[in-house]
Design brief:
single chain, about 160 residues, alpha/beta, five-stranded parallel sheet, globular
């Protein structure tokens, strides 16, 4: 890095970290374990597939997905071991992400499970409703890999601190 201009060194460092993450060589310590059981809930197939692929790029392998809150609740009830992280869209047919979150927070098993709400809505009312219902974070679509990773780190650090 000695022959690289100062302004480019930071960019190169980020690119190297991104490259090593992509190849599974780098995994931040302040993040959910790679073998965490994760549920992604999104009604649009393309976005759901994108979110699952982002999670895989971040090193996660136990990723389940559902098309709406009702489908997710059914899948949750079928599980022997609970999900350790849930990422859900806010607006979906049959049962919304808010409905799912409300059900989860009233369940002894999922009362404190990390939950990240995503939505194309960026209005204050939607964000406040999700946070008041118990969401640990809110991401406005489109979701980027970097933003998702940062939110995951924040939620993990918050939950880890609460469990100490």
């Amino acid at each position: 890095m000695q022959n690289i201009p100062i302004h480019a060194q930071g960019i190169l460092h980020v690119e190297l970290l991104t490259l090593s993450r992509f190849h599974g060589l780098y995994y931040p310590e302040n993040m959910f374990p790679a073998d965490s059981k994760i549920l992604v809930v999104e009604d649009m197939n393309s976005i759901r597939e994108y979110l699952v692929s982002l999670m895989k790029e971040l090193g996660f392998s136990k990723i389940h997905d559902c098309k709406d809150g009702a489908d997710a609740w059914e899948k949750i009830q079928e599980q022997k071991a609970p999900f350790e992280l849930i990422i859900s869209d806010l607006n979906m047919p049959k049962s919304s992400g808010l409905d799912l979150l409300t059900r989860l927070r009233s369940s002894a098993v999922y009362k404190t499970t990390p939950f990240i709400m995503i939505s194309s809505k960026s209005d204050t009312k939607s964000i406040v409703s999700a946070i008041q219902a118990g969401a640990d974070h809110f991401i406005v679509k489109p979701v980027s890999k970097l933003e998702l990773q940062e939110k995951l780190k924040t939620v993990f650090e918050r939950k880890s601190g609460a469990n100490r």
